[in-house]
User: Fold these one by one.
Assistant:
Number 1:
Amino acid sequence: MAALRAPQTGIMVGGEQMNGSIEIRAERPGDAGSIGTVNRFVFGQEDEARLVEAIRAWPGFDPALSLVAVAAGRIVGHILFSPISIVDGSISTPALALAPMAVLPEWQRKGVGSKLVRIGLDVCRSRGHGIVIVVGHPEFYPRFGFVPAGAAGLILPFDAPADAFLVAELIPESLSEVRGEVVYSKPFQPDAT
């Protein structure tokens, strides 16, 4: 496993080569265009690319939590974690949203998405984040420790299949006393600019 450092922090954030052909690393300033292209192609629309741009422009953005998969100098995958809250009355608990994650079709089912998630969760944990929420494939995310979020006492603020609303506890006991509604940051909200 080759390691890398986030240039903005100097903290070891993890990195990995897959068979010498894929590197997982933190986003760099020149990566924005390629990340947008990957998200537009994979999702077949602009929404996810716009979401990434909005999060990147938001003051809560941490570039160390935006990871790319690179093959032969080309970005072939991307995953983003960004701050959200879980609110129960006057109690607000910080958490992260995993969204979006995209891997170009020719690199799917080759472990690229799994490596992005695993390394991304390791980076989140190393930076002190204890809770990650995802609305995603219920057959994919549980292998990384995600469990049904509704059963954990969390409420999603929009309609989605219950089995797709998942949570992972990265630091033991981070979720033990947490209940409430997930509140996404401004970039996730439809009126965000």
Number 2:
Amino acid sequence: RVRRAMAQARGTPGRIALLGAALARHHASRAGADARVVRAVERLVASHGTADVGALAREVATTPRHLQRLFARDVGVSPKHLARIRRVQHVFAAWRDRPRAWAQVAAECGYVDQAHLARDMRAIAGGAPAGLVASMTAFTRAFTPLGTGARRVGWPDASPRRRHAVR
């Protein structure tokens, strides 16, 4: 129903308004997430996605399969998928805070090797880490440190004097 309405809406603002209304209705119809899911999400976020799903299920007093069902219902993705998303977020945050070699970032963020990081990045974000960073827009770069790591990936405006020049 929402898909049909969005297809008939005129322009992006109309589509955004329709989607916002549909999400508000969906949210209002939910009684709230299961407390076990809330606790599991908190642990996944706090662990930067490195928490073991089996251990997480035991911690919230359920089975891994039941936790998957609860996540499907309340979150929309599996606990493992949410963990992968959180790990990728952690990688970008770690690189943003201190740009350095991707192999070093991978090791610091709990990946076995850079290839494992690259697989997760392709699956979650659609590309390899260096390619994703290189394709960032000027707006995104304004919120990313522009030190030696920025020069390494070829950003032309990587000099410190330009750091605050974006208006």
